[in-house]
Design brief:
Chain lengths: 357, 254
């Protein structure tokens, strides 16, 4: 070992990059701008400045006067704001859950719907729309609750099925069990839907996902789950890096791999189920957002997890703006927008980052 | 120091290791040798607490079962035959992961963790690679990064499963010399090895396993005899011994 003295003296920079100050600020700024655009853009034009002053008028002791008239005020705070906030919550959750699933299963193609969340939620919502009594259907709790219950039930069955194979091939078995569950629930869901073609429209519009009927009530339903889930996932960012070394090595580094994986999967699933129950099935966010961060910045989960949360929120807010403005007054399903915007953008990122290296 | 007493590792009805008792001292290098399926890797994995076992594993005199996973990880570093090296992770980030047993479950690295990782990088002359992604390293550099990660763990016992499999002759020697230096620093080194000549060159004690049992044990000269290799590897070899050590050459039989 003949190290030259000069080389040995140069202290290397030994630290995990995590979320650097610049990347954190840029991503947070992206989210803030997206939120501002989400509030300001729509058939009723209200300036960002007025919206900001209106928000500040609610802060005690600042003595800012309310600049908005009654109609503008209602449009901004009762129609647009819940919609924008809900899109941000759902987008952040789907992205952070996607990143976590990809880490836990060490498979870059995993998305938050991997373990049957989507199929289960779709089946639950369909059953609620089709069979719930008109009284229950009138309540805005019924469909989200049924979707949430369906999602959780599907994942529990998937987990039980995967576990029955044995611990050694757990991750592979879980993914296969998820595929089985998704196929089965989709089959049942389609069957029920075909039996009740008169409700096809509402079932279909739920499945495609969107925020057109978002209220503060929806925000209140899902926010606690999403807050807790994303907090747990963000706290596990270093553990996800350790898990990326594989079960054996993570275990030899002192991590209880089974318990860590279960914790992460439960958190990601609960959050995703809550998100899906208020938004329907929005594809692509959980894959595109984490991968964009990997390609542009870092593959370490210490960066990918927190940045996905912020970027996913901003991305879905912008996608929703497009969904409600392009064909205004009609709306595009937001899943169409995420795919339509997301795919080319992702292809571009993929291309430029490949040529850069 | 690591010691096993009547160690059994079973996969369902099949026992891969049958009653292994051995003792590896601090500052010593023990090599587990034997044909494919002899139970070398299973034994090593049991030492690291990665395979369920019957019997006892004692690390520095303490029962590994009672120590718990994290405490074992602070005492035993394990390098598998094909370590997982996420290509986009930088060398520094990767080596820092070796500090995991010293960090709270949801915690982050402290200054002392960064210092330990820096030490490990310096020890393996990887300072200038600190910011390079693992995917850009050559096979030999990568193996050094893996060793640095194990070293950052600051465990007194180092277990290596086939540390030289994918390396060319020069890199094999380089890596084994590095391991030997670590041994001289006082680490307990246990490796599994396929190459009998290299095993005889570096380890001072060889344990020959066949069918999960110890069939020969001792210095390279004692273990690496033509009849031993013939009987347990089913191989026709010529063993040559001179002042440089014991050499095992395959010879075509016809």
């Amino acid at each position: 070992m003949a190290a030259t003295a000069g080389r040995a003296e140069a202290a290397p920079r030994v630290e995990a990059r995590g979320v650097g100050l610049r990347a954190g600020l840029v991503t947070a700024a992206f989210l803030v701008v997206a939120l501002a655009i989400g509030l300001a853009v729509g058939p009723v034009q209200v300036g960002v400045g007025s919206i900001l002053r209106s928000a500040l008028s609610y802060v005690p002791f600042l003595h800012v006067g309310q600049p908005l008239g009654a109609v503008d005020h209602a449009v901004i705070w009762q129609l647009r704001a819940p919609r924008v906030v809900l899109a941000a919550l759902v987008g952040g959750m789907l992205a952070v859950a996607g990143a976590s699933y990809q880490g836990v299963f060490r498979n870059p193609l995993c998305d938050p719907y991997l373990l049957g969340v989507a199929g289960g939620a779709g089946l639950g919502a369909t059953l609620a729309i089709v069979y719930a009594s008109s009284a229950a259907a009138g309540s805005n709790w019924t469909v989200p609750l049924a979707a949430f219950a369906g999602a959780i039930a599907a994942v529990v069955v998937t987990y039980a099925l995967g576990r029955s194979v044995g611990a050694t091939q757990m991750t592979g078995a879980l993914v296969l069990a998820g595929v089985t569950m998704a196929t089965f629930t989709a089959a049942v869901q389609t069957f029920v839907q075909q039996q009740h073609t008169q409700q096809l429209q509402s079932v279909y519009s739920w499945l495609l996902g969107g925020f057109s009927s978002a209220t503060w009530h929806d925000v209140a339903i899902c926010a606690p789950y999403i807050a807790v889930s994303s907090l747990v996932l963000v706290l596990h960012r270093r553990v996800l890096d350790v898990l990326s070394l594989g079960d054996d090595e993570a275990s030899s580094l002192g991590i209880d791999v089974g318990r860590a994986r279960l914790t992460i999967v439960v958190a990601a699933t609960l959050g995703t189920a809550a998100a899906v129950s208020v938004s329907g099935l929005i594809a692509f966010v959980g894959i595109i957002v984490p991968h964009t961060i990997r390609l542009l910045y870092s593959t370490s989960y210490r960066a990918v997890v927190p940045l996905s949360l912020l970027a996913g929120a901003g991305f879905l807010v912008l996608a929703d703006v497009v969904a409600r403005t392009v064909l205004s007054p009609a709306e595009l399903p937001i899943g169409v927008v995420t795919a339509f915007l997301g795919a080319p953008f992702f292809a571009l990122v993929l291309r430029t980052s490949r040529t850069a290296r | 120091m690591i010691e096993t007493r009547d160690l059994w590792v079973r996969f369902g009805p099949v026992a891969a290791v049958r009653g292994l008792s051995l003792r590896a001292e601090a500052g010593g290098w023990t090599a587990l040798i034997g044909p494919n399926g002899a139970g070398k890797t299973s034994a090593l994995r049991a030492f690291a607490g990665l395979a369920a076992y019957e019997g006892e594993v004692l690390i520095d005199g303490q029962d590994a079962r009672k120590l718990g996973r994290r405490a074992v990880a602070r005492l035993v570093a394990f390098v598998p035959q094909k370590p997982e090296t996420p290509p986009a992770l930088t060398v520094a980030e990767y080596v820092l992961l070796g500090r995991t047993p010293h960090i709270r479950y949801l915690g982050g690295e402290s200054r002392s963790d960064r210092e330990a990782a820096t030490q490990a990088l310096r020890r393996l002359e990887l300072e200038r690679f600190a910011d390079r992604p693992l995917g850009s390293l050559s096979g030999g550099e990568l193996q050094r990064a893996v060793l640095a990660r194990a070293l950052a763990q600051e465990a007194p016992v180092l277990l290596l499963d086939e540390p030289t499999t994918a390396l060319d002759l020069g890199r094999q020697q380089l890596v084994l010399e590095l391991v030997d230096e670590l041994r001289r620093d006082g680490l307990t080194v246990v490796t599994t090895m396929h190459d009998l000549t290299l095993a005889g060159q570096y380890a001072e004690r060889l344990v020959l396993l066949d069918g999960g049992k110890v069939v020969a044990e001792g210095t390279p000269t004692e273990v690496l005899s033509t009849p031993n290799v013939a009987a347990h590897y089913g191989a026709n070899v010529r063993v040559i011994e001179d002042e440089a050590g014991v050499f095992v050459f395959p010879v075509r039989s016809r």
